[in-house]
Design a protein that fits this description.
Helix content is 0%, strand content 54%.
């Protein structure tokens, strides 16, 4: 089972920036799509951004132009640069990675809190 370790997050003012990082404990395993999801209190977890092994990215509309996802396939890491943060971005952010040859499995990080004050 792949273990993901997140870092970053914290408290920032409206319009500020934060960077989230996530690293897989195992570097020998080949990860497929990686991404970031977030969950607000009482809400379902939602996709924020994903990136495939060839670098193809996908973003939820609300973060387009403000967030940038990147990955390093040699180190099995993924990051999320968040600029121009807004109070509605406040949530717990989770790193996700898919892996497997036949069956596809999903690994999740422990979550990191991002709070944007108005």
């Amino acid at each position: 089972q792949v273990q993901l370790v997140e870092s970053g997050g914290g408290l920032v003012r409206n319009g500020g920036s934060l960077r989230l990082s996530c690293a897989a404990a195992e570097t020998a395993i080949s990860l497929k799509t990686m991404g970031w999801y977030r969950q607000q209190p009482g809400m379902e977890r939602e996709m924020v951004a994903t990136i495939s092994t060839d670098g193809t990215t996908d973003y939820t509309d609300s973060v387009l132009g403000r967030f940038t996802i990147a990955r390093d396939n040699t180190k099995n890491t993924v990051s999320l640069q968040m600029n121009n943060l807004k109070p509605e971005d406040t949530a717990v952010y989770y790193c996700n990675a898919r892996y497997g040859a036949g069956s596809i499995f999903a690994a999740w990080g422990q979550g990191t809190q991002v709070t944007v004050s108005s």
